[in-house]
Structure formats: C-alpha cells, structure tokens
TrEMBL record:
It comes from Sphingomonas tagetis. Residues 1-21 form the signal peptide. Keywords: Signal. The lineage of its organism: Bacteria, Pseudomonadati, Pseudomonadota, Alphaproteobacteria, Sphingomonadales. This is PsiF repeat-containing protein. The keyword Signal applies. The keyword Signal applies.
Amino acid sequence: MRTIINGFAAAAILIAAPALAETKPGTPTPAAGESSEQAAAQDKRYCAKHSATGSRIAKKVCKTRAQWIDEDGFDPLAQK
C-alpha cells in the first residue's frame, strides 16, 4: 500500500515539474550583440588537473575565472 502511494506521489511531482520550470516574464535576458559576448566570456570555464598523492588518476576541476579568483586566488589567464 505504501509503495502505491509513493508511486502516485512521484508521478504527481513529475507531471507538475514542467509547469514549475516556466521562466518568469520579468527575468532579464542579455541583449543581442556585445552584451551576449560579455555574458559568454563570463560563463567560460577553465579547467585544471590536480593529481592527488597516491593516485594515478588526475582530478579535473572546472570553474569560471571569477570562481578561480574568489576561491583559490588563482587567475587562469595570468601570464606566468
């Protein structure tokens, strides 16, 4: 009985999910042209591989430039 109720609850959530995912009309969208290029540049991700001691597999970490600077103080575009 509990399994049936859980199944119906899951189905109801899955059916209602697309209705909740609609965008709001007040949400600003980036304008065409230069601002979209700036938005793309801000969203560009930079990846680095970190190898942990004792492991042969390197871990790949990808973040935006702002995230690298904020979290690690590392600028991926800085000249060496």
